[in-house]
Amino acid sequence: MVRRSLGAALVGVLLISGFGTGTASAAEPPGATVTLDGTVPGGRLPEDFVGLSYEMRELGTGGFEAGTGNLVNLFRTLGRSSVRISGNTLDRDTLWVPAGQPAPQPLPDWVQDVVTPADIARLGGFLRATGWNAMVGINVGRWDPALGADQARSMSTLLGDRLRATQCGNEPNSWVSKGFRAPGYGYPQYKPEWEACAAAVGSNRIAGPDTSSPTSTAPFVASFAQDERDRINTLTIHNYSVGSTATVADLLSPQTRAKQLNSVAPELASAQTQQVPIRLDETNSAAGGGVAGVSDTYASALWVMDYSLQMAQAGFAGVNLHGGLGVCGAPLYNGKFQLYTPICAADDASARAKVYRAMPEYYGLYLASRMGPGRFRPLTLTTERNLTAYAVRGDDARTRIALIQKESPDGAPVRVSLRVGTGNGTAEVVRLTGATLTGVDGVKIQGAAVDARGRLPHRPADRVRVRDGNLALDLAAGSAVVITLPCDAF
C-alpha cells in the first residue's frame, strides 16, 4: 500500500465513473482514500499555466488567422493562456524581412521560411480574438543586428501588451551540433550574443535561454538565471518526457512521472534561487514529433493532464505543449511525423480551410485548465493503483480535485473514499473518458467531443452528495475527473 502526503503541494491519486448516488458499498473496502487538509495553502496555479507552442514557420505560412477556420474557437475553448512561437525553424531557416522591403532574390540557401510585419499583425489580430498572449522568437543562431532590431520594434508596435516576451534564439546549447557555431561554443560565448539581442529588444519583456535537454544544461541555465535575472520576465527551458521507443505503458508509468520532474528539478531550483518565474515553454511526450501509437492516443490525454498539474504543483509557471498546424500525422522537416500535436488538420483540404480537429492531448489540457486559477492544497492519498490527484483552492473560493487514473479502461474501477472537510452539499464532477488507451477517436468530456466549430458542447456535470465532508465514489479505470466541491464543504 502506498501513502503520499506532500504538505502544501499535494500529489495523490485516483479517478471516477459510475457516479449514481456517489455512494460506495460499505461491504467493500476502498481502493483508495484521499484526505484534504485546508489549513496550509501551497503554490500558485496561474490562469495561463496550460499553453501551446509552435514553430516559427507557422507565422510565415499564414497560421494564426482570426477570420478563417476554427482555430480561434479552439484556443478560446481552452481558456486564456499564452502561445509560444519559435522552435527549431527559428534559427535554422527563418528570415525576417522588414516592411516595405522585398525578400532578397535569390533567397540565401539556408532560408525556407520568411516572416514579415504582416505576419506579426495577423498574429496580433488572432491574439485579440482569443484573449491569449504570445512569446515570439528572434533568430540569433543566424544573428543580423539590423534585422533583429527591426523585428523587435515591429513586434512591440504590432502586438503591444499581447507580447508576453521576446525570445532570443532557440536551444543555444545545441547550436554546435546544428552547425550554427564552432565546437567549444558554450554559455560564455552565448552570453554576449544574447545580451546583444536583449539590447535590441530594449524591454524587460524578454525570456530565455530556451535550452533543450534539461538534465545536461543545468549549469547553462543556472548561469543565465543569475546573470540575467533583472532583465528577463521568465526563465524558459524545454522538456520531453519519454524517448522515441516508448510505449503507452512507459508514458503512463510512475517511473516516467518521477523522471520527468527530476530531469528539470535543477533548473527549477535555479529559478527559485534567483526568484524568477520558470516556464516549460516547449514540451510534450516525446521529441521530434512524437511516437506513433503513443503521443497521438488517448493515453496522451491522461498523461498531459497529470504532467501539466505535476509541473505546476512543483513550481513551474506553466507549460506550452509543442505541436503544429499541419495535417495530423503528416511528415515533418526532420523525416518524422506530426503525432504529438494537440491541434491538427484531418486532411489537406481541412488544412487549407484552416479547420482543425482536437486531438486526445487537447482534452487532457482542457480538463487540467479547469483547475485554476488558485492555490494548491495539501492532500494525503493511500492506494495501490496507478492514480494521481491534485487539489486547488480556486480564486472563486471553490475547491477542485483532479483525479487521473492511468490504467486500461477495461480494468476494474477504483473505489475511493474522500474526506474533504466537514460540510454538506452537492459536488459537481466532470469526466474525461476514452474507449482504449491506444485509441485516437472517441475521447470525450462528459460524453461530448469538440465539434467542427472548435467548441465543446456543454453537458451538465454529474452531481454527488457530500455528507459531513465525505464522498464515496467508484472511479473508472483509464479516466480522469475534476470534482468541484460545494463552498461549505472545505
Question: What is this structure, in a nutshell?
Answer:
With 490 residues, this protein is of the alpha/beta class. The protein is 27% helix and 27% strand.
Descriptive overview:
By secondary structure, the protein is α/β, with parallel strands linked by helices. It folds into two domains: about 1-45 and about 375-490, Immunoglobulin-like (Sandwich); about 45-370, Glycosidases (TIM Barrel). Helices cover about 25% and strands about 25% of the residues. It contains 13 helices and 25 strands. The protein has helices at about 55-60, 70-80, 90-95, 115-130, 145-160, 185-200, 215-230, 250, 255-260, 265-275, 300-315, 350-355, 360-370; strands at about 1-5, 30-35, 45, 50-55, 80-85, 95, 115, 135-140, 165-170, 205-210, 235-240, 280-285, 320-325, 345, 355-360, 375, 380-385, 385-395, 400-405, 415-420, 425-435, 445, 460-465, 470-475, 480-485. Strands 3, 16, 18, 19, 21, 22, 23 and 25 form an eight-stranded antiparallel β-sheet that branches. Helix 4 runs parallel beside helix 5 (about 145-160). The longest helix has 17 residues, at about 300-315. The chain is globular. The chain starts with a strand and ends in a 6-residue tail after the last strand.
